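Researcher: I'd like a structural prediction for the single chain below. Treat it as a standalone chain; there are no partners to consider.
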Amino acid sequence: MSNSAAAAVLTTADLPEAIRAVRTLLDIADTDPADVDFEAVIRSQEVLERVRHALPDLVWRASAGEEQGSSKAGDDPAGCLPIQVFDWCRPLDRAEPFIAALGPDPAAVRWDLYAWPAVPEAGLEAISQKYAYLTLTVNSRDLYQEERSQDHTIYVHVPNPPGDRIDRIHWLADQVGGRFTGRVEVAPL
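Model: Treating it as a single chain, here is the predicted structure.
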């Protein structure tokens, strides 16, 4: 299994600011084709109802373990709270409704892009689909929702180790008014 380096380029308590930054980065990326993946921990009936409105056929399992309930078994998620969402390959237009539904619950939304295109004027070569991802963590400071927070972080993914891709990370951070501080998490692909 290969990994990408997920570099934090912007952390903000302002979710609309984070969404605007994601939109800016999506406008830079080659998104033809692209899809979006969701990971979350849902703790309340209220959030669950909103998330199921955004993703009616939600893929989930009970936090206590799949044997305690799952979408695969046809169980009712409301009776299994808290639940973990692991929902993949959704259309891009599902991301913002999902994010809006979360309330205080932590999540990671990952856009699987076609590529980070070349930027000749900045001396940047294209980065292929294999390493072209963008992640927004909501109410969490890490990719895996282990460090709950009231702020939100945008990560750009490049090959691991980032090595000669540091210039790409700095350039993408600059495009959204962020700053790369050196914080990188390894993300399995």
